Amino acid sequence: MAKSYKHLETKLIHAGEPDPLINGAVSMPIFQSVMFEYTGETSYHDLRYIRLNNTPNHVALHEKLAALENAEAALVTASGMAAISTSLLTLLSSGDHLLAQECLYGGTHDFITKDLATFGISFDFIDGDDPDSWKEHLRPTTRAIYVETMTNPLLQVADLTAVVEFAKAHGLVSLIDNTFASPVNFRPPEWGFDLSLHSCTKYLNGHSDIVAGAVLGRADLIEKITHRLNHLGGSLDPHACFLLHRGLKTLAVRVKYQNESAFKIAQYLETHPAVETMNYPGLETHPRNKRARTLFDGFGGVLSFELKGGVDVAERFIQNLTLPILAPSLGGVETLITRPATTSHSGMSREDRQALGISDSLIRVSVGIEATEDVIQDFEQALKA
Ligand code: PLP
Residue 313 in 3-state DSSP? Predict the structure, then answer.
């Protein structure tokens, strides 16, 4: 009988695993082989060759990832940016137009604003919170709409159901970067999104030791993106596939803990007299808390905040911490802290950042899986100092 699993926790362990097990190996072996013996394949894209992302390691991962979000298909890529750029360059060609949420991960923002124009592709930014304003940006050449589940670094939650409705009404492909939520907290295909994108460098792998990406969603689109990826070359190495496969198995355990821990830390910071503003979608004071509660099963492990007193105070606070590591990126088992103006969003001009509400003093924390009390205690001593 074909095996199918209902719950995400079970899919993480069993979906996509070889059946029967390869030589009885309980853990998926690494197939570090460039090519595989020809068995009569008739299309270039079906040849079994490492760049075509179809070694047994890729095949197993594709099946597991698709199962996690109840997507029709999935594709792993060499990085989150490879997933994003290859998807956009598959859906859009010269003369086409893209609608994109105005506050995005810095790399995506830069790709849209600096690189797409060189391919003859234009864009307009939209306020994800104001669906009534989207129509005025629509053009006959608009092909796609792009948003993030929770924006980086402000943790805004766009009107995601309106995005899907708008896309369907106007024949656009809807894309969402679901990195911050992970499939544990949000599964875009279940809400009607055509494509869900991930930087697997973050939560999906979870151990800060590989770079990888993924696209999940409609099978017809995944096939087109796969063919474009085959030509652009952004495939994932089997060894990285193996590490991602291994990291995925603990995704639910990690993310549920991070949801809880980040929530407690956000509650602690929110009431601290030294804190000026606090961004975490789980808090009742978050402007879109009600929407987040409707959409998400958990609110994720990332939060951001500003301290009273500006950049110098923020820097002193960060320097006084002893537990979090001062580094960009997120979604790993260790707590990381950064000022996005100096890292993830340093490619944007200061004016652009300010216009979006990303101040120079904004601090972003990616909560790890350490004891919550230890993180709070460290924050407490650093705030006192
Ligand atoms: N999407 C989001 C939300 C991110 O935060 C990042 C990286 O920080 C990316 C995409 C890009 O991912 P990668 O570094 O794996 O290319």
Answer: helix
